[in-house]
Amino acid sequence: MKSPIHILKEFFGHDSFRPLQEDIITSVMNGNDTVALLPTGGGKSVCFQVPALAMGGICIVISPLVALMNDQVNELKNKGIKALHLAGGLSFEELQISLDNALYGNYSFLYLSPERLQQEIVQNAIRKMDLCLIAVDEAHCISQWGNDFRPNYRNINILRELHPLVPMIALTATATPEVLKDTISELKLEMPKVYKQSFFRPNLAYKTIKAEDKLYRVEQLLKDNRGSAIVYVRSRSMAVETSEQLNKLGISSSYYHGGIPSEVRQKRLEEWKNGTFSTMVATNAFGMGIDHPRVRFVIHLQLPESIESYFQEAGRAGRDGNPAEAVLIYNEYDKILVKKQFIDALPGRKHLKKVYRNLLNFFRIPYGEGEFSSHAFNFTEFCKTYSLPANLTYNALNTLDRIGVLQLSRQFGRKSVLRFSLPSEQLLTYFEQDPKVSLIGKTILRIYGGIFEILTPVNLDLVAGKIGQSTGMVIEVLQKMEKDEVAELQLFDTDAVITFLVPREDDKTINRMAVGVNELNEKKAMQVKAMVTFVTNNFDCKSEQLLQYFGEEFTERCGVCSVCLKGEQLPGSNKPEEIAAQVLTLLGSGGMDSREISEKLTFTEAEILTVLKALLDSRKVVLNSRNQYQLPG
After folding, report:
1. Whole-angstrom Cα distance, residue 269 to residue 292?
2. Rg of the Cα trace of the chain?
3. What predicted TM-score, i.e. pTM, was given to this entire model?
4. 567-630: in CATH 3.40.50.300
5. CATH homologous superfamily of domain 4-196?
6. Could you say which of 380, 427, 518, 562 would form a disulfide bridge with 422 (CB–CB 3.0 to 4.6 Å)?
7. 623-632 pLDDT per residue, tens
């Protein structure tokens, strides 16, 4: 057995471990369940890849991040290490072949999502594998208090039943003490060794700026940026609009959100990383697993829902260790908006009962039935059918998911299942009757093998894209084939699937879980309050505020955040007469608007505007025809 340091040098090209890595690896190799809390860029993957290679056998890696799994598998392959990823959209035969390869092909790593782990065929194969380690990445997702809750993470502990003696390592870069405790409990870790490195990022300056003209502030930050940047917004339309505005200002950008086809999202991600454009304007769909070292700015134009979300998104800046900034630009309305979006829209027991009852009726589930039944779900159609408010209803579905009433899955939506019922020669004859049918049918045959033998998942958007037609037309043709008994079809023309986890009981179901609902709502309210406190607290170092939120007791001022750099700007700390004297001196060289004055002085914009108003009132300054401040006379 090669030593960990030998493996680190041979495969990863490093002569020494980063802080805590060696301790974590030793714990794993001693057979201990282990928790690794390392900051973004702290080298979490080495903590399970090195011991797995040292011990031999296969390491199963559970991750919610498809992009990150692909990247890690490709990196391992490039190093000559055998690794496999069970991607979504595999046919039954492809899945069976991949599992056989993992079983008999001397592979070292098998990457899969928590959803894939729930399949019986996958569990049966894992039971036969020679496992050396189970690694759970982004492990905070298992906690009901985590900011990126994934319901299927709750079922990861099936691996403890399949391989009770194999050690498990849980890895995360975001966990409050409460989340850590919950994660350990849910994963059933036995007396785990917990290793926690400080989340302090000395190269990352956290800055909060109160401003009405946010776009102007973004322009000032990015006009001379030579690296990459991310601008986070809360809606798809705002992502598109902001990107267009930045391009007009000469800042090359594109946008990224969940409504863009996955192939386009991947292409834009690669273009951004390659420097084709500098700035990605994105919703939180641009999430975990976005690994690009040269990001100099992460800018938020609206308040995130929690410090957990903010910390993770801000942490994408400066992963190369060079100076970077995480800038949150807000105004007074943002504080009202975040409360409206995330607290006022929290569903109470009455609304949960209403949504749950409507769901059961929507899918025509009889009383006492429905357990483990899955249904393609069109959210817009559901809200329209029952005249339900979208935001409150969406939150209600997430709450029902979190308390275990149902499972709302988005990952395997839009995967209709198809099998051709006729032999190939008869099928081709059928195709000849209609050019549209022929085009779509032959395209499907070219993309998907084995579609005559078994029901095969078919990506409708992919088929439509290949032929340059709408997804609606593809659906129409497939439905015609089904009607003509040419094909067997299970149509999922939505981007979500709902699985009911309990039999229908209406009010009793919600009443039983009311305590959990109240706890979730209270937790969300606390998270929003903490976010507002962070952005408005301009007395305490921003970095210290974040570290203390995540349970770090011994912290020091960072020296680079908006509070540390401009401590003299704290409200009330500058005397108005001092500010006025500097403004008058500055205006001695000519007229300026308030923006120019703010850029040239070190005081806050709010303080300068207050002083300018006082100077106008006392006629010590006047406004000229270009709306600039100048000295009278």
Report:
1. 10
2. 28
3. 0.69
4. no
5. P-loop containing nucleotide triphosphate hydrolases (3.40.50.300)
6. 427
7. 988 889 999 8
